[in-house]
Amino acid sequence: xxxxxxxxxxxxxxxxxxxxxxxxxxxxxxxxxxxxxxxxxxxxxxxxxxxxxxxxxxxxxxxxxxxxxxxxxxxxxxxxxxxxxxxxxxxxxxxxxxxxxxxxxxxxxxxxxxxxxxxxxxxxxxxxxxxxxxxx
Length: 136
Hints:
Layout: H1 2-8, E1 12-17, E2 20-25, E3 31-34, E4 62-64, E5 69-72, E6 88-89, E7 94-100, E8 103-108, E9 113-118, E10 125-126, E11 131-135
Antiparallel strand pairs: 1-2, 2-3, 4-11, 5-7, 5-10, 6-9, 7-8, 9-11
Keywords: Biotin, Fatty acid biosynthesis, Fatty acid metabolism, Lipid biosynthesis, Lipid metabolism
Pathway: Lipid metabolism; fatty acid biosynthesis
Function: This protein is a component of the acetyl coenzyme A carboxylase complex; first, biotin carboxylase catalyzes the carboxylation of the carrier protein and then the transcarboxylase transfers the carboxyl group to form malonyl-CoA.
């Protein structure tokens, strides 16, 4: 993969397959092999975290985006949101949608808890791995 970077002039390349992802970036001495977002969902702990992290990507209750797309908090413009801040959610409950390539994908709560913060608004573009919400 390093040779491909050199030949093409790219600064980074990433390959994802099933439960693993390999990313090589030029200019750093770092090669990362990590599970995909679905497999990397943190397990809820018995004691909630005392103070929320200032960086939502590092928060243990962060729900990361599994894809690039546009987020929608309601099933249609005239409907109420799937969930609201402060609401209890069950594991597997739909909390929002992401439209990617004309397909609406349900984003489900990875664990039961309280939705403490929604970090995106309807119509916002989101990137892979970007935190969408925090469930504690």
